[in-house]
Each structure stands twice: as structure tokens, then as C-alpha cells.
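note to self: dont lose this again. the chain is below, predicted strucutre after it. 131 aa total, dont forget to put it in the shared folder this time
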Amino acid sequence: MKSLILTYLFKTTIVAHMKKKAQYRGLFPGALEMMILKTLSWKPMHGYALAQRLKDISEDYLQIEEGSLYPALQRMLKTGWLETEMGLSARNRPVRVFKVTEAGKKHLEQELASVEKMFAGITRVLTLAEQ
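---
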């Protein structure tokens, strides 16, 4: 049930760029970092692959621009949530591969719990506001 609510809210309220640019909504503070951590927890990858994965998972609802993604990755490296190693892209080019650290996993857990509480409150208000 929680995952259905999170999926619904993700697709309806947490979008950076709606399909066909019909409407723009910014991400709430920490959302990009949380999505980066969650995605990289599944599989370490380089920046471009990460941006493509976020776009694919969100069914094109999110268009994460390089001007947002790479500074976020740098901030996360500095805070110790990510680490890098050199790897090869699908085209055999050298790339920095980002991995989640233990500190990053702990931060992700805390942020997910916080977001679930926030969405529970929003859902409650939206459900009960008409009563």
C-alpha cells in the first residue's frame, strides 16, 4: 500500500518536468539526492547512465538536467554519501562510477522514513479535507 501511495504521489506531485512540458513543478528539497541514492543502491553507475535511468524509471516525468545532477553528485561525494571509482562506459570510454557508501545508505533510510511521514500527512489532508 505504501509503495502504491508513493508511486501515485511521485507521478502526480514530485515531477521536475511534465511530459510535453505542459506544467513544471520543482522537486522538494532532498528529493534529487534521495532518488540518486536509491538508484545507485540498486546499481553503481556513471552520471549520464544515472540521468537516463531516472528518466526511464519516471517514464519521462523527470528530466534531470546536468546542471542539477552533477552538482548534486559532487555535494554527495563531499558529505560522504557516495564514493567513486573509475570504470568504462558502454562505449568503452573512461567514466567515474558512483557508489553509495554506508553513510549514504543510512541517510537514505532516514530520508525515506521522513518522506513516508510527509506523504502520509499530505494524503490524510487530501482525503479528509472534503469531509
